[in-house]
Design goal:
It is found in: Plastid, Chloroplast stroma. The protein is α/β, with parallel strands linked by helices and 414 residues long. Helices cover 21% and strands 29% of the residues.
Length: 414
């Protein structure tokens, strides 16, 4: 099959003086088999993948492409990945033993990376998450898709790529925690990639102190876990007087305790992770704040059709032109239509961090250029949401709808 350009009728917001317009078609993009040509062409030449294996992807020919995303005709620079961003520096951690499985755990799925790919067999929904089996992200994926096959990935970037390359059907990624705050890395990846938010999962975090069978918590001398989990359980850790060691994931900490077999070493992880790696739960619910909730986003290649029944959320990202009170005016378009904002996050534009107002490097006032991410409680099928975005376009230089999806109101304990 050949890859050929095809026009897609995607709504755009275009800036006209003081008027809003729902305008022209999107720039051409690539689809498979649109010309009916049966000649063979290597898909990897178009997708930018050097080491391609036959049968890795199951492409589906689609004659109708629908898109609900609203975005500017000219994308912001942060949407286009640079060569420097291709290799992200990962925060140093003391332990990363995700590849050291116990001999009895070899049947567990191995993490996908951005370069090591495996194809989907199509028998059931495959859901990607960051981490290894027993991670909180996997619990969130199973809450969203109870009968799914979960696919662990070694980093957030690999999760996005797994969906884009048809290796999995959906992805579940954390976006914010009620104690630790927002996961900024995933906000940046949402803008860079073209996936759609199709749902959310809210998970009550229930940290457990786990150790080898027969060990008492008073015997522990060191505790392993993700740095945020260690911070969220300071009271009990101070009481025990243990040394804290950071790992890349709570499930990795449980895996290390099992594989190393040191009685004086424990971990902070979920009860499910303890069960997977054959550990005892020494103490449950050890987090300092009992109201510890993590919100996850469900991502897909295609958006869902928004409805008017039930409670919907819409997530958008936009930039604003410089001017007095412009952010106040932008937020006011929602208030005047009784639309509640459930989340607002600002992220600096990495490739355009400063704006010099008068064009002078010496005396001009300098401002940070920001991307604003907003979640509001309304469906894009409602007229008030459409009018709000039309009004927002008067102040914004760029708007993109990341997704419209049902709101999750049922918490699940881990």
């Amino acid at each position: 099959m050949n890859l050929v350009p095809c026009e897609c009728a995607v709504p755009h917001w275009h800036r006209y003086s003081k008027k809003s317009r729902l305008l022209e078609a999107a720039p051409p993009f690539l689809v498979l088999g649109a010309d009916g040509n049966k000649s063979k062409a290597a898909p990897n030449s178009q997708l930018g993948i050097s080491d391609w294996r036959r049968g890795c992807l199951n492409f589906k020919i689609r004659r109708e492409w629908k898109c609900l995303a609203l975005r500017a005709v000219t994308p912001v620079e942060d949407e286009i990945p640079s060569s420097q961003d291709a290799v992200q520096e990962r925060e140093p951690t003391l332990i990363n033993h995700s590849d050291r499985f116990h001999k009895d755990l070899n049947s567990l799925p191995k993490p996908l990376s951005a370069t090591i790919l495996s194809s989907s067999d199509g028998t059931r929904v495959r859901v990607a998450y960051q981490g290894i089996p027993g991670a909180y992200s996997e619990t969130a994926a199973l809450k969203a898709f109870p009968e799914s096959e979960t696919v662990p990935c070694d980093e957030f970037e690999a999760v996005f790529k797994a969906v884009e390359l048809w290796l999995v059907d959906k992805a579940v990624l954390p976006i914010e925690n009620s104690v630790g705050g927002s996961i900024h890395r995933n906000y940046d990846l949402l803008l860079r990639h073209r996936l759609h938010i199709v749902g959310e999962v809210q998970l009550i975090v229930n940290h457990c102190l786990v150790g080898l069978p027969g060990v008492r918590k008073e015997e522990l001398k060191q505790v392993l876990s993700h740095p945020q989990a260690l911070e969220q359980c300071e009271v009990i850790l101070n009481k025990l007087g243990v040394t804290r060691i950071g790992t890349v994931d709570t499930a990795v900490a449980a895996q290390v305790v099992d594989s190393e077999g040191v009685r004086e070493t424990g971990a902070i992880a979920s009860a499910r992770a303890a069960s997977i790696y054959g550990l005892d739960v020494l103490a449950e619910g050890i987090q300092d704040n009992s109201d510890n909730v993590t919100r996850f986003l469900i991502l897909s290649r295609e958006p869902i059709i928004p409805g008017t029944e039930g409670t919907f959320k819409t997530s958008i990202v936009f930039t604003l032109e410089e001017g007095p009170g412009v952010l106040f005016k932008a937020l006011g378009v929602f208030a005047m239509r009784d639309i509640n904002l459930s989340k607002i996050e600002s992220r600096p534009q990495k490739r355009r961090p400063l704006r010099i107002v008068d064009g002078s490097n010496k005396t001009g006032a300098r401002y940070f250029d920001y991307l604003f991410y907003i979640d509001f409680e309304a469906s894009m099928a409602e007229a008030r949401a459409q009018f709000a975005l039309g009004h927002l376009q008067e102040f914004a230089g760029f708007i993109r709808v990341l997704g419209c999806y049902p709101k999750d109101t049922i918490y699940k304990r881990t």
